[in-house]
Specification:
about 400 residues, mainly alpha, 17 helices, two-stranded antiparallel sheet
Length: about 400
């Protein structure tokens, strides 16, 4: 879910290497009166083209955020509709793992250099603080709970992802140097699932239990995604998704969907301790299979929604106000027709439309001050950037 800093101006080109015979000086131009006007001006070099975004990843991020919004819209319907519950469980099995894996893939270049730390602060830490406060005020007003306390250490609703991404990215150098990063991250996730004393601070249960997907993304390469996006994989993905839906339809009344949130230990879910390792590994395997099937069907070419992939963090953070407000204001209770098949379809379409609109450029421009603030005033200029600026001005 960031823009790199650009040095001001252009550096001078280095002198060409010495040659055995220098070419003759350019013949000076003369105007019609015979006055010398100097050598001809060399044509200006074209400016380098900006780096092209990969349409595949923008498509994947947009489709994943649409599934996130749909899942939040389906949640109140799961008590009365087994079909909605099956869809809900299937989507929750892979939509956040896919999003986290992509986040890991784009964190591969992270290190502790100043400009990357500035982007970490402005692109993740500051939005977390602002939206944690905003959501608290929203709950006080919309839920008629004026005494609800502020807590920057206990993420509320969607903000857990920001604090998790901050922690994951800060630990990126560690996952790059250890020998078996994925098995180690799985071991940590398993231990977290049986550790009820972790508590709610920084939502560490989710941070640790979702960690393997971020680590996998860190160690993926472009060719890994190419291998997934084959005609054969797309054909296999169809029966896999169908099988997942059928299994979820069967398991819905028998299984606690809180397993998919990965925010609780087995003790908090009133399950035996041995189920922690079993469910952690089983859910990890199921999620990875469904993530691969999801990527197999993500379009590779530019689509009408490709440009919206750059604004998925806006859609993610902003749609939470409507998702929570619909519960606080009792919309699902006041309109019984929403629990009918046509109502469920309408809820799905509204969720997809709203999150799509929230990813659009006008919304990005309106809320950029909170989600992608520049904040140049808050940071010292690093020596490397100062040297580049002096060289450009010389």
């Amino acid at each position: 879910m960031t823009n790199s800093l650009r040095p001001h101006g252009y550096q001078r080109a280095p002198l060409p290497p010495a040659r055995e015979a220098e070419p003759p000086p350019p013949t000076p131009h003369r105007d019609t009166a015979g006055h010398q006007t100097g050598p001809p001006t060399a044509p200006a070099k074209p400016e380098p083209k900006p780096k092209q975004r990969d349409a595949f990843f923008d498509n994947a991020k947009y489709l994943a955020i649409v599934l996130v919004a749909m899942g939040h819209a389906w949640e109140p319907l799961t008590d009365g509709s087994r079909t909605a519950e099956a869809l809900y469980m299937t989507v929750y099995a892979f939509h956040m793992p896919a999003f986290i894996l992509i986040s890991g893939y784009f964190s591969r270049s992270f290190d502790m250099r100043p400009h990357r730390l500035r982007r970490l602060i402005t692109g993740i830490a500051v939005p977390y603080l602002l939206f944690e406060v905003a959501y608290t005020f929203f709950k006080r007003w919309a839920d008629d709970d004026p005494t609800y306390d502020f807590s920057l250490l206990d993420p509320w609703y969607l903000t857990w992802f920001l604090i998790a991404l901050f922690v994951w990215r800060m630990t990126t150098p560690i996952w790059k140097i250890i020998r078996w990063p994925i098995p180690v991250s799985l071991a940590i996730a398993t231990l977290a699932s049986v550790s009820p004393d972790i508590g709610d601070d920084l939502d560490l249960q989710r941070v640790l239990q979702f960690l393997p997907f971020f680590v996998i993304g860190l160690h993926m390469k472009a060719e890994h995604f190419q291998r997934i996006r084959t005609p054969r994989t797309r054909l296999l993905a169809l029966p896999v998704f169908a099988g997942a839906l059928l299994f979820a339809y069967w398991a819905g009344p028998r299984m606690n969907s809180a397993w998919f949130y990965r925010r609780d230990s087995v003790q908090e879910l009133a399950a035996p301790p041995w189920t922690g390792p079993v469910m952690t590994l089983a859910l990890f395997g199921c999620s990875m299979v469904l993530v691969a099937c999801f990527f197999a069907w993500v379009p590779r070419r530019r689509m009408w929604f490709t440009a919206l992939g750059a604004g998925t963090l806006y859609g993610y953070l902003l749609h939470g106000f409507l998702a929570k407000g619909s519960r606080f204001w009792g919309w699902y209770d006041d309109y019984a027709w929403l629990h009918k098949p046509l109502g469920e379809i309408a809820v799905t379409l509204v969720a997809a439309t709203v999150v799509t609109l929230l990813c659009t450029p006008p919304v990005q421009r309106l809320f950029r001050f909170a989600i992608e603030p520049k904040m140049e005033w808050a940071f010292r200029k690093d020596p490397g950037e100062q040297a580049r600026s002096r060289s450009s001005a010389a």
